[in-house]
Predict the structure of DUF5317 domain-containing protein.
Amino acid sequence: MFIEGGIIGLILGKVRGGRFSNFSYLSIRAWPLIFLAFFIQVSPAFTNKISALSSFQGYAYGLSNGVIILLLLFNLNKRGLKVMLAGLLLNLVAVYFNGWKIPVSMEGLQLAGLDAMVEAIQSGKIANYIPLDSLQHWSKYLAKFIVIPKPYPLAKVISIGDLFITLGLTLFIYGEMTKNHLHSRSRMIKFGYKGTI
């Protein structure tokens, strides 16, 4: 849902008179954590071929979320990031109570046309997912069971946490685009003027 959240945020920001140039003023504390989280997220694609590291697959999603949560805590002053943090915490709770695996509705995946993913989960090729119908714990309500089916081009199954994350990202982008940087520009112009005297 990151793509959808980003696009909606850009559209809303532009409609409300926001500027794309505002992103040049964007300042994120501890930003290298973004790359660390991404590396952890994609690492199972490489570690599954190394038997000594195969057990790491089950923890990759939770650890990646943990790194992003740390990043958000450093930047809670920005619009939308508290909402995004709530979504990440909901997803983290879901995997914590299910052996660090992501609970997902198999029927939902089939409705979304993701039959190949269903087969991969059932065969064990995708080790960090667990079928929703095997759960009895209340955490099943935080699982990925909300279906966005075809003909939507990015058909998928998402969780309540994912909805919060998408909303938070939309608010963040909208907030950055519509933020008033006039004061910062006036100081820069004033400094340049003094330099010419």
